[in-house]
Write a structure and sequence with these properties.
about 700 residues, single chain, 21 strands, alpha+beta
Length: about 700
């Protein structure tokens, strides 16, 4: 027992020594910077001793928080840019399983309200320069386990001081600290774990100045508790959760065709491993690799010490600007111009106030109706009356003139803040009214380029988060499940997707545990803006003449009860029948117009033909008379040739008349065919909310 206790003490001591090394080599510098940045963001921008000294001197102390409005614009860029995560099959993966994995990620994202938590991490990053997700399995609500995503306080995450890369897979260790009471420790890590801690008032470690009862971030603010201020059961102890890499022998799947290797999930049973090995034709071999060890301690007590069940650290970071292990946010670069802005604005007000009254010069004993102290307080009042023995005994001191250029300093400070933050007036919505809308949009897009790096690093964090979640899905979502997902669209119903479902032939439907997949990170606009664009496009297409159904326009609108309207349309076939009747009437009108145009062209052609025939008849008559005379004088042979020529001319005229009649009949037939085709097309087209399912006339409802 003594040996085991000694071993536990040594592990806790080693844990704290590693934590203190990381804390004293960079982390405390970050904490001080983070506290100052948060104070400026919240509007606490004056040092307390300077504020008190200025107030005692009667000088104004102004705080005009330009940082808050600037950060709000950057936060708006993130809110309007949401992640769209999909998975791409790689090597032995397939597209069907990739789609199922994307659905599983969507369910996890919805259950954890990831879009709000991502905003919190983004805010931590741009304000303090560091933000952190924590991704692990939880079993409170789901007995088979589910992925849980939480947001960590960046001041409680201590990074390996020797790390210099963005990806935590390159770090040797990471620490997560928190303050807990002995009762909370018992509830989390097991009954009796805090027994040795309840009587502790100071740490057993020599350098552990922050191990027992120190400040924390809470609604009560930053507080420091001293001995005797709280009962013993409210004693707070720093719990150190350390995740670090250590070499060990492990089993790996090996693909003999490609040589690729992947560790065998620790949570898999032997049956599962054997089935996977036979299905994929993989081999298993023992090899030494870097695995994650998980150790948790509270002062001198070891609470937990086991191998981690995960392939990655649970911590996923977000750094707006990252350079070789150095993190930078946005607020820290705005502190200097903000301080200068407050000082200049305060000085400007002070100069204006002092110019109203420069003071008085009095002959000693000349003031009759008040004393000197009262004159000092009331000297700047309007309508002040002084009673003097001699009017020349008092002189008003002329105040100093306002220095030229003082009013320009505040304008310059605002410009400095815009230049440093890359947030222009166009992005704030403060453009002049005479600027064209296209010019404003172009300037906003150009301004967004200045924020490309923080947004690109956010995409990088989304990739790391999705990668870790993918590993948890493939390792822990091994049994048959039903994923229930409701997409964000009007009228959408819950969709149930079975995964890891064994079929009658022995195959597994949507086997999430097999295959290799790559994460694809896209982005989508915020929902409201997206719906506005969809509505405008649908309306424009309908105006162009395309048959966009009514329910499509309603679904993309912002009507309060659009789902109910769509359902009523689905339950009222007469509304769609009326719409179809209107379309048929429009088609009939179009055909009738074509008929009228064809008839007019026919009449014009007949008129022209009749006129041409009349002219030709007159000419032929004259020619006939002349030819007859010539024929009589020429003899019988000439007369025969003449009769033959006349017969050919008559046949040609009859042929032309027949061709004209055929063309008129063809035009009429084409118009009738178009009319019939339009009627058949409209009659055969089902209603937008119905599809045929059985025999003739059988329909069933579907979602728009």
């Amino acid at each position: 027992m003594a040996s085991a206790a000694s071993s536990q003490f040594e592990k806790a001591k080693d844990n704290y020594q590693r934590y203190s090394y990381a804390r004293d080599n960079g982390h405390m510098d970050f904490v001080e910077k983070a506290k100052r940045c948060e104070s400026f963001y919240r509007g606490l921008q004056w040092e307390e001793k300077i504020r008190k000294r200025l107030e005692m001197a009667g000088k104004p102390v102004l705080t005009i928080n330009e940082i808050l409005s600037t950060i709000n614009v950057i936060q708006g860029e993130q809110v309007n840019n949401r992640a769209d995560i999909t998975f791409r099959p790689f090597e032995d993966g397939d597209s069907v399983t990739a789609t199922a994995l994307a659905k599983a990620y969507l369910q996890i994202s919805n259950n954890n309200r990831l879009h709000w938590k991502e905003s919190e991490v983004f805010d931590d990053g741009i304000i303090t320069s560091r933000g952190f997700f924590d991704v692990r399995m939880k079993f409170e609500r789901q007995m088979r386990g589910e992925v849980d995503i939480s947001v960590l306080n960046p001041k409680n995450v201590v990074i390996d001081p020797d790390a210099d890369k963005y990806d935590p897979d390159t770090w040797s260790e990471v620490f997560i600290t928190k303050w807990m009471t002995p009762d909370q420790i018992d509830a989390t890590y097991g009954e009796g774990k805090s027994k040795a801690l309840k009587q502790v008032e100071v740490s057993r470690f020599e350098t552990a100045y922050d191990s027992i009862d120190n400040w924390e971030d809470s609604f009560a603010g930053d507080t420091t508790q001293r001995d005797g201020d709280k009962p013993k059961d409210k004693l707070r102890i720093r719990v150190i959760e350390r995740q670090y890499r250590k070499s060990r022998m492990t089993e790996h799947f090996v693909d003999p065709r490609t040589g690729d290797s992947r560790p065998v999930p620790k949570s898999w049973s032997k049956t599962r491993i054997k089935r996977t090995q036979n299905t994929m034709d993989w081999r298993i071999r023992q090899s030494r690799s870097q695995q994650i060890r998980w150790r948790i301690s509270a002062d001198s007590v070891t609470l937990f010490d086991e191998w981690s069940p995960y392939q990655h650290f649970t911590v996923v970071p977000y750094f707006p600007y990252f350079r070789r292990g150095h993190t930078m946010g946005v607020v820290e670069h705005l502190i200097s111009p903000q301080e200068m802005f407050n000082k200049v604005a305060s000085q400007e007000v002070h100069v204006v106030n002092s110019s109203a009254n420069g003071g008085w010069k009095l002959r000693k004993g000349s003031l009759q109706n008040m004393d000197i102290d009262e004159l000092e307080k009331r000297g700047a009042e309007t309508g002040l009356v002084l009673e003097l023995e001699n009017p020349d005994d008092a002189q008003k001191i002329q105040p100093n003139q306002i220095p030229s250029g003082l009013d320009r300093l505040t304008v310059n400070m605002r410009e400095y803040i815009k230049a440093v933050s890359n947030v222009s007036d166009s992005m704030r919505g403060f453009d002049r009214e005479d600027v064209a809308a296209k010019a404003i949009q172009a300037k906003r897009q150009a301004g967004a380029i200045g924020l490309s790096k923080p947004m690109d690093n956010l995409v990088r964090t989304r990739y790391l988060l999705a990668r870790n979640i993918l590993c948890l899905i493939q390792e822990f979502y091994t049994e048959e499940r039903i994923l229930r997902i409701t997409e964000e669209r009007p009228g959408a119903k819950m969709e149930e997707i079975p995964v890891n479902q064994v079929q009658e032939d022995g195959t597994v439907l949507n086997d999430l545990t097999l295959g290799t997949y790559d994460v694809v990170v896209g982005s989508t606009a915020v929902r409201d803006g997206y719906m506005d664009d969809q509505f405008e496009e649908a309306k424009a297409l309908r105006e162009l003449g395309l048959p966009i159904p009514d329910h499509v326009l309603i679904a993309s609108s912002h009507l309060e009860k659009k789902n109910e309207i769509i359902e009523e349309m689905q339950q009222d076939p007469q509304a769609e029948a009326n719409a179809r009747r209107e379309e048929l009437e429009l088609a009939e009108m179009e055909v009738a117009l074509q008929d009228k145009q064809a008839e007019a062209q026919r009449k014009m052609a007949e008129t022209s033909l009749a006129q041409a025939r009349a002219e030709k008849t007159s000419v032929d008559a004259q020619k006939t008379a002349m030819d007859a005379q010539t024929a009589q004088s020429a003899g019988p042979e000439i007369a025969l040739q003449y009769e033959k020529m006349m017969l050919e001319a008559q046949l040609e005229r009859e042929k032309m008349a027949m061709e004209m009649q055929l063309k008129r009949e063809e035009m009429a037939m084409d118009a009738k065919i178009k009319m019939a085709e339009a009627e058949e097309r409209l009659a055969a087209q089902p209603a937008p909310w119905e599809v045929p399912v059985g025999g003739a006339g059988s329909t069933t409802p579907r979602n728009p």
